[in-house]
Write a structure and sequence with these properties.
It contains 18 helices and no strands. With 444 residues, it is mainly α. The chain is globular and about 50 Å long. It has a single domain, classed as MFS general substrate transporter like domains (Growth Hormone, Chain: A). Helix 6 runs antiparallel to helix 7 and helix 8 packs antiparallel against helix 13. GO terms for molecular function: transmembrane transporter activity. InterPro entries: MFS, MFS_dom, MFS_trans_sf. Pfam families: MFS_1.
C-alpha cells in the first residue's frame, strides 16, 4: 500500500479493525497506595503463614498464661499477705528466671538450627509448670518454683520464636510481621483473664480449677506448634561459625552494643503490670472482682494497636515508634500521680498502657533484628531481651522497695523520671543506628 511505512501494523492482531482514539481523560492512572489496595494486600500477604501459625500458638499460650497472671498479684498480696517489697522481689524473680535461659535458648537454636524444637521445649515447660502451681497449694516457696519453671519456658522460647518471625518475613516488613504476631498474642492476653473469671465462677472460686484449665490450654498450644509451624533450619553452620566466642563477638558490633545498652535503660524504666494495677486499685479503692479485668483493658488497647503501630514503624522508623511507646508509659506514671480520678483515670491508664506495649514489644525486636548477622540472629535477639530482663528485675525490686518505704507517690515519681531519662538516652544512642538488613553481616 503506497505511503504506508513497511513496519506499520506490525504486532497488531487484527489490522482490519478501525482503531478507536484514546483520550487522555480515559486513561486509568494508578491510585496512590493507602495500604488497602493491591500493593497493600501484597504487603500484608508478605507476613506469611508461618507468622500467623506462630501467632496462633502465642494466642493460645497467652490465654493459658494470662489466666494465671491476672489473678496472681491479687492472690499473693491479698491471699498470702505479701508486702509490696516482697511482691517486688517475686515479680522480679518472675522475669529474672528468664535471664540466662534466654541466652541459652538463643545460642542453642543458632547452634543446632532447630529453632522450632527449642521453642517447643519452652512452650512445653511452661505448660507443665501450670501443674506445678496446682501441686504447690499455699506454699510460697513451691509457687515460686512453679513460676520460675513457667518463666524459664518463656525464656527458652522467646528468642527462637522471634528469630523464626524474622527469618519468615522480608526485612522491610518486619514491623508489620511483629505487629501481626503481637496482635494475635494480645488477643490471648485479652481472653485469658475472662476465661479465668469464667472458670472461677463455674468452679466456685477454686484456684486449682484455673490451674488445670490453664494447663490444658497450654498443651493445646504445643500441639498447634508441632503441627503447623515450619522451621527455618538452613544448613548447619561450619565448625566455629556459631560458638561462644562468635556470640561474644556480637558485642564488637557498635550497633549491637548501642541497642543492648538502650534496651537495658528502657527495662530499668519499666515496672511490672501487677504494680500498675495494684496502684490503680489502691488509689480508686476498687473491689477485688475488678482487678483481673484491668489486664483485659490493657490487652484490648494492645490488640487493636499492635498491627497498625508495627506497620507505622516500617513506614516512619522503628525508633520513633518505640520512643513514643515509652512516652506513653511515662504518661501512665504521671496519670496515676495526677488529680483526675475515677473511671476516666482507669480508662486513660489502661489505654496508655496498651499503647506502650503495642509500640514497643515487637517493634523493639524489629529494630534490633537487622543489626544481627543471620547466623547469630537468635543469639543476638536473646542478648537484647536478656539485657532488658536483667534491668527489669532491678526495676521491680527498687520500685517495690520505694513503695514500701516512701509510699506509692514517690515510687511513681521516680519511675516517671527514670522513663524520661531512658527515652532521652535511647534517642541519643540509637539515632541512625538501624542500617538496612544485611549491612551487619558484611561487617561482622
Amino acid at each position: 500500500m503506497p505511503g504506508v511505512p513497511p513496519h506499520a501494523g506490525r504486532g497488531i492482531r487484527n489490522p482490519g479493525k478501525v482503531c478507536t482514539p484514546v483520550y487522555l481523560s480515559t486513561i486509568r492512572r494508578p491510585k496512590p497506595d493507602t495500604g488497602t489496595g493491591e500493593a497493600g494486600r501484597r504487603r500484608w500477604e508478605a507476613v506469611g503463614t508461618n507468622v500467623f501459625a506462630l501467632g496462633t500458638v502465642s494466642l493460645v499460650t497467652d490465654i493459658s498464661s494470662e489466666m494465671v497472671t491476672a489473678i496472681l498479684p491479687l492472690y499473693l498480696i491479698i491471699g498470702l499477705q505479701l508486702s509490696p517489697a516482697a511482691y517486688g522481689v517475686v515479680d522480679g524473680a518472675y522475669t529474672g528466671a528468664t535471664v540466662l535461659l534466654r541466652l541459652v535458648g538463643g545460642y542453642l537454636a543458632d547452634r543446632v538450627r532447630r529453632r522450632k524444637a527449642v521453642a517447643g521445649f519452652g512452650y512445653g515447660l511452661s505448660a507443665v509448670a501450670k501443674l506445678g502451681l496446682l501441686a504447690a497449694g499455699g506454699s510460697v516457696g513451691a509457687i515460686g518454683l512453679a513460676i520460675t519453671a513457667d518463666r524459664a519456658g518463656k525464656g527458652l522460647r522467646t528468642a527462637p520464636r522471634d528469630a523464626l518471625i524474622t527469618l519468615s518475613t522480608p526485612p522491610a516488613q518486619l514491623g508489620r510481621a511483629f505487629g501481626v504476631h503481637r496482635t494475635m498474642d494480645s488477643v490471648g492476653a485479652f481472653l485469658g483473664p475472662l476465661v479465668a473469671l469464667a472458670v472461677l465462677a463455674v468452679a466456685g472460686q477454686r484456684y486449682d480449677a484455673v490451674f488445670v484449665t490453664s494447663f490444658c490450654v497450654a498443651a493445646f498450644g504445643v500441639v498447634i506448634l508441632v503441627l503447623f509451624v515450619r522451621d527455618r533450619r538452613g544448613p548447619v553452620p561450619p565448625a566455629g561459625a556459631v560458638s561462644p566466642r562468635q556470640a561474644a563477638g556480637l558485642l564488637r558490633i557498635a550497633g549491637v552494643r548501642r541497642i543492648l545498652l538502650a534496651a537495658g535503660l528502657l527495662g530499668l524504666a519499666t515496672i511490672g503490670d501487677g504494680f500498675v494495677y495494684l496502684l490503680l486499685r489502691d488509689r480508686e479503692d476498687l473491689a477485688t472482682v475488678w482487678f483481673p479485668l484491668m489486664a483485659v483493658g490493657t490487652s484490648l488497647a494492645y490488640l487493636l494497636l499492635a498491627a497498625p503501630l508495627g506497620a507505622l514503624a516500617d513506614r516512619i522508623g522503628r525508633l520513633p515508634v518505640t520512643l513514643g511507646g515509652y512516652g506513653a508509659l511515662v504518661l501512665v506514671y504521671l496519670a496515676i500521680l495526677g488529680p483526675v480520678g475515677g473511671w476516666p483515670l482507669i480508662v486513660a491508664v489502661l489505654a496508655l498502657y496498651g499503647i506502650f506495649y503495642a509500640a514497643t514489644d515487637g517493634v523493639l525486636m524489629a529494630l534490633a533484628a537487622p543489626l544481627m548477622p543471620e547466623r547469630l540472629r537468635t543469639t543476638g535477639l536473646a542478648l537484647v531481651q536478656t539485657g532488658q530482663a536483667v534491668t527489669y528485675v532491678g526495676s521491680s525490686v527498687l520500685f517495690g522497695a520505694a513503695w514500701q518505704f516512701w509510699g506509692p507517690t514517690a515510687a511513681c515519681a521516680l519511675a516517671a523520671l527514670a522513663g524520661v531519662i531512658a527515652i532521652i538516652a535511647t534517642a541519643a544512642l540509637l539515632y541512625g543506628v538501624n542500617r538496612p538488613a544485611g549491612a551487619v553481616e558484611a561487617t561482622s
